[in-house]
Amino acid sequence: MSILVPLLVSVITAATPLLLAATGELVVERAGVLNLGVEGMMLVGAICAFAAMFITGSPILAMLAGAAAGAVLSALFGVLVLTLASNQVATGLALTLFGLGLSALMGANFVGHPIVPLAKLAIPGLSSLPVIGPLLFSHDALVYLSVLMTGAVGWFLNHTRGGLILRGVGESDTSAHSIGHDVIRIRYYAVLFGGAMAGLGGAYLSLAYTPMWVEGMTAGRGWIALALVVFAAWRPWRVLAGAYLFGGVTVLQLYAQGSGFVLVPTQFLTMLPYLATIVVLTLMSSGSVRSRLAAPACLGKPFRPVS
């Protein structure tokens, strides 16, 4: 038990940035927009959150800065693909490259400077419980927020009129437009939400997971978040399960490498999430596979309103 509990806690922390970013991307894709720039938004969110924490010392301002940075970058993406109707795949890839370069430039003066990590929230009477306490009631605010947002997104999509409209826009934008819904505005809202969540995912990396700034510290997690959405068949609670599964694989390979006891090479375990991401993104390019996975019908297709 002394080994199992820290292992499970590590799985939760490894899964949190994936869950935040994937939950936001799920909303974006349910609205019919494919944003491959999650990695770039996470990086910019990570450096902006770190800079805000380093300068102000306020965790709240740092988290807001990370979310705002991701939203601003996603707004740029929205202008290009929604207003100017550029290719969503190419624009998303460009956004990732832009975020990589911008974060490196912004973070040049912060390399090697440590900060105080996000504080764990102690819940009286619960955090001190054996096993359950450290496992469920001794995490920072972003861990709880990631699970809360997953539930909120699931409720919004399945039990509210706004969620029904958003799903309708993703399934048939022309039909939604014909009955009076502003497709472009709805998609802008979804894209901004997805950017803010990706920024929070990056903020978690620099504020809690490894409380420092390292260039390229997302290490492909944005791409894994994209794959999670497809693995989950665009269902929020499946995204939650998939994030913890990917987090478990990441932590297990680190523990296996540290213990020196492995049945397969640790390099193989390390590459599994990225290999799965490549497979998923390849499958997404096939219309027949996307249909069987119940992907939103308008995913990745530009919309030009006709009067």
Give a structural overview:
Helix 3 (about 60-85) packs antiparallel against helix 4 (about 90-105) and helix 10 (about 220-230) packs across helix 11 (about 235-260). It contains 13 helices and no strands. The mean pLDDT is about 90. It has helices at about 5-30, 40-55, 60-85, 90-105, 130-135, 140-160, 160-170, 175-180, 185-210, 220-230, 235-260, 265-285, 285-290. It is globular, with a radius of gyration of 19 Å. It is mainly α. It has one domain (about 5-115, about 125-290): ABC transporter involved in vitamin B12 uptake, BtuC, CATH 1.10.3470.
How many domains would you count in the coordinates? 1
Q: Tell me, what's the shape?
A: globular
Number of H- or I-type helical stretches: 13
Which secondary-structure class do the elements indicate? mainly alpha
Transmembrane segments: 31-54, 61-84, 90-111, 141-157, 188-207, 213-232, 239-256, 262-283
GO cellular component, one term: plasma membrane
Membrane topology: Multi-pass membrane protein
Keywords: Cell membrane, Membrane, Transmembrane, Transmembrane helix
